[in-house]
């Protein structure tokens, strides 16, 4: 998910998404250098801890809005 105005990116993935570990890190670094905050969650966290995931996203959106 992209929250453009707040410059926040939320990613959800699992182990299969990490076939190219170095490319993943390079992309994360490029987004960070561009001024984005990236929150990353696993599919397990999304399914089993949705409240925690939402609270972290909300906290970052509040921080970005201040």
From TrEMBL:
TM region positions: none
InterPro entries xref list: DUF559, Restrct_endonuc-II-like
Protein name: DUF559 domain-containing protein
Gene3D superfamilies for this protein: VSR Endonuclease
Chain ranges of the DUF559 domain: 4-61
Signal peptide start-end: none
Domain of life: Bacteria
Pfam families from the UniProt entry: DUF559 (PF04480)
């Amino acid at each position: 998910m992209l929250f453009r105005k707040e410059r926040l990116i939320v990613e959800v993935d699992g182990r299969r998404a990490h076939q190219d570990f170095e490319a993943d890190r390079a992309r994360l670094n490029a987004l960070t250098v561009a001024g984005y905050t990236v929150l990353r969650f696993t599919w397990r966290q999304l399914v089993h801890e949705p409240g925690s995931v939402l609270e972290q996203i909300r906290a970052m959106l509040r921080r970005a809005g201040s």
